[in-house]
Amino acid sequence: STSECLHTLSPSRLTKTVLSRFSLTVCDIRRWKSTRIEPDNIDLLLENLEQSNGLSLQSDENGGCNKKSVILVEHRNLNPETELKRYFGARAVLGDQRPRQRNRHFHRSTWMTSPKDSWPRFSRPGVSMTLLESKNGIQCFTFEHSRDYQQVQFKFLDAVESMDPNNIVALLQLNPYHIDSLLQLSDVCRIQEDQEMARDLIERALYSFECAFHPLFSLTSGTSRLDYLRPENRAFYLALYKHMVFLEKRGCPRTALEYCKLILSLDPDLDPLCMLLLVDFLMLRSREYKSLLQLYQDWEEHRNLSQLPNFAFSCALCRFHLSQQEDLDPKEAENQKKLADQMLQSALIMFPGVLMPLLDLCTVQPDATVTSHCFFGPKSQIGQPPALAELTALYVGRTYALWKEAAIMLWLEESVKEVLRRVDSKDSFVEECENKRKQRYQSAPRNIHRHVLLSEIKEATSTLPLDVTAQPVMGFDLLPPLDSVISYTRPERQHVGASNESTLSLFFRSLLPNFNLQEDEMGVARAGQELNQEVNRLMVAMRDMLANIRFQEPPRDDDPYRDDEEWD
After folding, report:
1. What is the pTM assigned to this prediction?
2. pLDDT surpasses 70 at 37
3. What is the rounded CA–CA span in Å between residue 259 and residue 351?
4. Rounded to whole angstroms, what are the CA distances from 133 to 127, 136, 231, 265?
5. Is residue 511 one of the residues assigned to a domain?
6. Is 351 exposed, middle or buried (0-12, 13-18, 19+ CB in 10 A)?
7. Sorted alphabetically, which InterPro entries does this protein's record hold (predicted)?
8. pLDDT tens-digit readout, 116-157
9. Domain for residue 407, yes or no?
10. For the chain, how many structural domains are there in total?
11. How many Å apart are CA 111 and CA 114, to the nearest integer?
């Protein structure tokens, strides 16, 4: 918060911090020194300095907009309160928050999450960040684990292999900021529909990460990279993704979009979580129509976004929304509508397998001429290449609610009729698209499978290939890259016999393909009967433990800010 920032940084130290983050000109420094800094203006000052030094917008050699500029992040948009204030006003959002903040304990200022008084006292868990290289204006960073943290990580992996969540709870009680434990237990809480606790655990993980940031690491410059090949970095990606999902479900799509752009900016070339399959949805949800079209225009040449069903349909829908704006010039509205028609027809011809599942989820009964036509009939789904079926199911399952509006359905109906007319008239574009579908989309890359697993959209997960579904999937490290860069290895551990397993562990082990049915038949039956009871006991105990963790604070000296040297 702003008040905490003032306590943490004296004017001289604030000057030093700002200068280390931004290359200021002499005029900038004079202007800053001559301006009185009010507490509420610190954040605005830092953002203005970013913009004045070209960090908010990058240009290419030709003077045009850089292809990555549309994914740059703004600090203020990472805070859901910014979006909620636009909806409900500052008074409704903040309430009596300011007076209460005066009595809060000292915390370091962070951008992504605000520490809560109910959290355990923060102590560095052993995670740090290192700058690997800086080249052509791009800085590559990586998180690192201390020796003590590595030992905790080994214990966590042992707890995961035991398939007993009690062991993870016990580990988190001793290490309240161990990141993978927080992520894993967040999933358990979410499955048990304890959304508040699940969200709180993710926020705690993000806070732990942000406290470990390198001084040069920036969330907003668009030039900081994290390699997903390194296991230490993957938890940060996953924590950001899960936090983004919670924000979208809470009705903060604009804030969720900012986190989506942040994830994409960490590695825009490889896109390990395949955020390009999601960013269009969030832009439509937050009504960032021009940003979506700008992204499509900037990235189409080098990423072929038109070959992704989500961009083909979402950009058409985006044009339609623009054409319906009341303050638009009539000629411009007509032009936007014409472009929307063309884009939707092209999308339907290229991806005919989208229509029927989309109408089905929208509970719309199509005309008999559509269902009986071979172009949109069952053949359009059955004949799809595997990767295209995966992309189609993902898009439909995620965005069908955006198509339910009556005006949109009428527009879709008109476009479908025009497409069938073009198909019957042997339009050459129809044959061209059919050839493209046959040649492409045979197999999806690993990052698309990873995204589908993260999405938990049942229509999409059912299309995953056998080589993905047959392997064990760990929630804290979904489909790790096959060429991972390993910095430390886990020591071998002895196998623990079944006699030492808990009821819950025995039940889960029965789901594995190598389980001996005759040997453990009685134990599994007993485990199945007691599963719900034990899970419920675990959740009650875990919520009670997490809500009441308190650590004895070490004695403080007279200077409550003795750790200020960490900011240097």
Report:
1. 0.77
2. no
3. 29
4. 19, 10, 18, 17
5. no
6. buried
7. TCF25/Rqc1, TPR-like_helical_dom_sf
8. 999 999 988 899 999 999 999 999 999 999 999 999 999 999
9. yes
10. 2
11. 8
pLDDT tens for each residue of 356-397: 999 999 999 999 999 999 999 888 888 899 999 999 999 999
pLDDT surpassing 50 at residue 43: no
Give the pair of three-digit tokens for residue 440: 């492409």
Per the structure, the complete domain to which residue 365 belongs is given by 301-462
In the prediction, which pLDDT does 86 show? Answer: 83
Q: Which of 3, 4, 5, 255 is nearest to 112 (CA)?
A: 255
485 occurs within a structural domain: no
Helix (H, G, I), strand (E, B) or coil at 62: coil
**Both ends of the chain: CA-CA distance in Å?**
19
Rg from Cα positions in the chain? 26
Helical (H) or strand (E) element with 557: none
Burial class (CB in 10 A: 0-12, 13-18, 19+), 250: middle
Last residue of a domain, one of 23, 40, 56: 56
Residue at 76 is within a domain: no
Average pLDDT over all residues of the chain: 80
CA distances to 225, 355, 521 from 502, rounded to whole Å, are: 42, 48, 15
Domain end: 436, 462, 488, which one?
462
Among 232, 233, 426, CA closest to 224: 233
316 pLDDT above the threshold of 90: yes
Instruction: For residue 175, give the H/E element and its range.
Output: none
pLDDT digits (tens, 9 = 90+) for 183-229: 999 999 999 999 999 999 999 999 999 999 999 999 999 999 999 99
